[in-house]
Amino acid sequence: EDRVVFPLLVSPNAVDPNGFVCEIYLAGCDTYRKPCAKACHNKKLQSFYVGTPISVIHLFDNLKKYLDSEAITEVHWLGGEPLVNKNRIQFIRGVSHLIKLNYPHIKIAVFTGYDEDDAFYRALSLANVIDFLKTGPFLTDQIGTKQISPTFELPTFNQKLYRVSSPSNFELIS
Q: Which of 27, 30, 62, 117 has the fewest CB atoms inside 10 Å of its own CB, making it the most exposed?
């Protein structure tokens, strides 16, 4: 069980103009004392006590109404901090595994504020169920446009996007 902030958000997919992204916001962040906390776009999610407690199965059941539409092409795990602890990572793994089993065409991304080394270590057990990993905190002194593709950009220069193809292969996209 973990805490999710509802409603789940659905927005146009910046990478695939024909699709939509379902964003799952998780409560709780351990970076509240770090520089990224000042510029955090989800300050209310820094607390571990906001949101609704929910199990893997119940969140997956809630997601199905979006995923069944076939308009969803990606699911993004955001926060708070998705990789904050082992329980959270197991929760993401459980839900992502169910998504991949039932909707293999959907791409899954985790957006973390951790740097590459810490993010790779924390995300190892997710490598078989996620497709992308965005690393790096949002730092106001690094604001700019880092173009990833004609339709997708990162908001700060220090953030990096990786394609995940196996636990030993995090391929830098940008």
A: 117
DSSP secondary structure letter of residue 122:
H
Q: Which residue has the tokens 């995923």?
A: 67
- Sign of the Cα torsion 27, 46, 34, 171 reads positive
Bridge partners, 170 (sequence order): 164
Q: How far apart are CA 21 and CA 24, in angstroms?
A: 10
What 8-state DSSP symbol labels residue 102?
H
What's the predicted TM-score (pTM) here?
0.86
| Number of neighbours of residue 94 by Cβ within 10 angstroms | 17
Distances (CA, A) of 174 to 25, 26, 53, 145, 166: 24, 25, 35, 12, 18
Is omega for the bond preceding 17 within 30 degrees of 0, making it cis?
no
Structure tokens at 95: 């839900």
* DSSP run (H or E) holding 89: helix 86-102
Two tokens at 38? Answer: 């000042």
